[in-house]
Amino acid sequence: ASPFVLRARRSMDKTGMPWHLRYLGQPEIGDKNRHALVRNCVDIATSDNLTDFLVEMGFRMDHEFVAKGHVFRKGIMKIVVYKIFRILMPGNTESIEPLSLSYLVELNVVAPAGQDVVSDDMRNFAEQLKPLVHLEKIDPKRLM
């Protein structure tokens, strides 16, 4: 069985913003013609002591990075354009270097189960970006 994975994130620009904890389920194995990866997601806002709480629960940090960019919305779609920066000294977000000169474009939609029409909307939006960006469905198992 795959490990239980949680993702914790927070804004570095605005102090006092809550941490966000996200659980992403395993991708659904279904129709290969589906244009988007589909999986369960639980996202909650938490207090400032989230990292201490997760360590006490037995979780360990696997990786840490800084993402700098912009968030756009089009209906229920969230488009995030950002660069990923590697943290040179763990815990010090001031000491960073870019992993690449390229930007990452991520397209997300949170929708109820069974809404396969949403993936068609994502595909249509991706087609509009095609001259500039090549959007593809990424298999997370391939990255591990």
Automatic annotation (TrEMBL):
One of its GO terms (biological process) is termination of RNA polymerase II transcription. InterPro entries: Mediator_Med18 (IPR019095). The keyword Flavoprotein does not apply. It comes from the Eukaryota. Transmembrane segments: none annotated. GO terms for molecular function: transcription coregulator activity. It is found in: Nucleus. Keywords: Activator, Nucleus, Transcription, Transcription regulation. The keyword Transcription regulation applies. GO terms for cellular component: core mediator complex; mediator complex. Component of the Mediator complex, a coactivator involved in the regulated transcription of nearly all RNA polymerase II-dependent genes. Mediator functions as a bridge to convey information from gene-specific regulatory proteins to the basal RNA polymerase II transcription machinery. Mediator is recruited to promoters by direct interactions with regulatory proteins and serves as a scaffold for the assembly of a functional preinitiation complex with RNA polymerase II and the general transcription factors. Belongs to the Mediator complex subunit 18 family. Component of the Mediator complex. This is Mediator of RNA polymerase II transcription subunit 18. It comes from Manacus vitellinus (golden-collared manakin). The gene is MED18.
